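Running this now, will post back.
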Amino acid sequence: MNTQLFLFGTSHPLQCGVGYGNGEIDNFRKYIRKVCATEKIALVAEEMSQQGLSHHQTESTVAESLARELNIQHRYVDLEENERARFQISDGTLTTIAINLSHTEPKGLREDLNLRISYPIRERYWVARILSANLWPTLFICGAAHVINVASIIGGIVDRAVIVEYDFVP
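Update: finished.
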């Protein structure tokens, strides 16, 4: 089996089809469609969860609706808030830690905690969920901040990891 992962970084609002004009969303959709056709994608996985969809006030992502249309498997692979809480990486927990550790700049420290603690845990979880799906080739759509890390984590595990876009902006 030829295990290939194609990574596509973009913003979560564009991923969810909110905050952009119809032309921009259509360009994103066309690009994803082209990648799916060219690479014969069997699974579209996304850094998203049901709570993430609610946060963006939508019921599905652009790629999920496209996957349905193309009859391609689709999965959201991000942790829900209760799962993040079990790992002690929920937004509330990280904010509390940041406040306890720094009375001067808790926001900056919270961002640092995300980069050093939360992101690595979440990124490995996504990779595990993608690998357990065992559908190849897979297109993984995630926030631009995660593309290089996920490529590094999965490199050597799959036959081929390709970064399609670091940070797609229509």
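The beta strands are 4-10, 43-46, 73-76, 138-143, 160-168. More later if anyone needs it.
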